[in-house]
Amino acid sequence: MNKRNFSQNIAFGMFWLAGIVSVLIMAFVVGYIMVKGLPGISLDFFTTSPRGGLSGDGGIYSTIVTTFYMIVVTLVFATPLGVGTAIYLTEYSSNTDSRAMGRLVSIARFGVETLAGVPSIIFGLFGYALFVTVMNLGFSILSASLAGACLIIPVIIRTTEEALKAVPAGYREGSLALGANRWETTWKVVLPAALRGISTGILLSAGRIVSETAIFFVTLGGSYRVPRSLMSGGRTMALHVYYLAMETRAFDKAMSTAAVLVALIIIMNLAINMVTNKIAAK
Amino acid sequence: MTSGTRRTGLEKTMKTILLVSALASLLIVLLIFIFTMKEAMPAFRELGVWKMLSGTTWRPGNGEFGILAMIAGSGLVTLGAVLIGVPLALGTAIFLSEIAPGWIVKIVRPSIELLAGIPSVVYGLFGMVVLVPLVREIPAPGNAGFGLLAASIVLAVMVLPTIANISEFAIRSVPRGYREGSLALGATKWETISRVLIPAARPGIISAVVLGLGRALGETIAMIMVIGNSVVLPAALTGNPLSIFLSRARTLTGNIAVEISYATGVHESALFATGVVLFILIMLVNSSAGFLLRRGARR
Lengths: 282, 299
Description:
The structure holds two protein chains of two kinds.
Chain A: H1 2-37, H2 43-47, H3 61-92, H4 99-117, H5 120-134, H6 141-165, H7 169-177, H8 182-211, H9 214-219, H10 237-248, H11 251-281
Chain B: H1 2-47, H2 49-54, E1 58-59, E2 64-65, H3 68-99, H4 102-117, H5 120-136, H6 148-172, H7 176-184, H8 189-218, H9 221-226, H10 252-259, H11 265-298
Antiparallel strand pairs in B: 1-2
Helix pairs in contact in B: 1-11, 3-6, 3-8, 4-6, 5-6, 6-8, 7-8, 8-11, 10-11
C-alpha cells in the first residue's frame, strides 16, 4: 500500500511540475518581452514611421497602418468564403437528396481539412508564384491578403460551424414550419443567433494575421513606408520585428515592437474569452 | 405567386453559391499543389528527383541543388522538439484533466492559450536574445549558439499548446465509467490514470503528437531566426553524439523563405521542389494523424 502511494506521489509531483513549468514558460517569455520592450515605448513610438537605416530609428506608425490594412483586406476575402462553406456544411449537407451530393460534401470537407494542415510558407510560396509574379500584382497588400486568406479560411469555417451547430434545432424547425425556406431560415434565424460565435472566429482570424510572418515575408515586400493603396507593399508589425532583428540588428526596437504585438494578442485573447463566456452564459 | 417563385429562385441560387464556396477550399488546395508542382517540374526534370533528395550540397551558383541537409535539419529539429515538448505537453494535459483543482486550471489553461497566440517571430526574437547566448555557453568547438538545440527548444514551446490541448481533450473524452470502475476496484488515482485512462486515450494522444509534428515541420520564421541557416549536414561537434544538436542547420521551410525573393531559373524551381517535398511530408504526417484518430474511434 505504501509503495503504491509512494509512486502516486512521485507521478503527481511530476504532473504538478509539468503544469507549473508550462505557466512559468509563458510568464518568462511574456515577462521578458515586456520588461525589455516597454521602456522603449512612448507616444512617439506609435506616431512616427521607421526611418530605415541601420540604427532602426523611428517608431512603428506605418507598420500599424499596414497591419490594419492586412487584417481588413484579408477578412474581406476570407469571411464570405469561410462563412459560406460553414453554412453549406452544417445547414445544407444534412438534407442532401442524392448520393452524389453526399459525396460532394465529404470531398468538400476533405478539402477544408487539408487546407487547414498546409504550412504557411507554402501559402507564401504559392502567393509569390501566382499573385506576385504570374498575376503581376507585385509585392503588395493585395497579393499578401490573397495568400493570407488561404491561412484563415479554415479558421473561419471551423468556428462558424461550431457557432451554427450551437443554434438549437428548434429555431430551424420553427422557421421551416412557418413556411420559410432553407435560405430564409438560415439568413433570418440561424445566422443572427450564431453571430457572436462567428465574431469570435473573425477575431481569432485577425489574431492570426497579426501573428503571421512567413507568408508576408515572401509576398508583402517589406517597405517601411506608409501604404498608399492596395498595390503598395509594406510590412506588418510582426514582419517589422523580423527585419529589425535579422537585418537591422536593432534588438531594443525589435523588443519594443514585440511588446506591442504581445499586448495586442493578449487583448484579443481577452476579447475572445469575453464573447465566448457571454455565449456560454446565455 | 411571383413572390413565391422569386423565393424559390433565391433559395436555389443561394444553394449553388454556398456549394461553390464550400468547394473553394478544395480548389485552393488543388491549385496550390498543381501550381507548386508545375513550378518544381523543371528542377525535378533537370536534376532528377532522387539526386535532389539525396544530394548533400546546395550551391545554387554551381547548379547543385541537393536538399538532404535541409531534410535532415527539419527532421532533427522536429525530433528535438518532440523529445523536449511531448513529456511537458502530456504532463500538462494529464495535470489539467485529472489532477489540477479548478482554480489552478483557470490559470494554466489561459497561459497555454496565450502560448499558442504568441507570434512565431516573437518566439524567434526570444530565442535569439535569450536561448542562443545560453546555448553558446556549452563548451564545444564551433558552437555558435545558433543551431538545432536552440531551435528545438523554441519549437518545443511552440507545439506545446497543440499537443497539450488535443491530448487533454482525448483524456477527458474517456467515459466516466472507466474511471469509476477502476477506482471502485481499489486502484489508486495514479493506477487509474496510467493503466486505464492513458491506454483508453492513446489514439487521441498519438494523433495529438503527430499533429504537433506537422506543426513543427511547417514552422518557418522562428526557425530562420535561431537555427543558423547554414546548409550543412548536421554532425556532432565533439565525441558526444548528442552534440549534433549544437550543429547549425537549415530547415526545408527556411530554405524557401530565405532564398525565394532573389532566386531565378533552376534555382527558383528547386525552391518550389523544396516546397513540394515539404507539402508531401506534412500531408503524410497529417493524414496519418487523421487515420489514427479514426482507427481509435472505431474501436
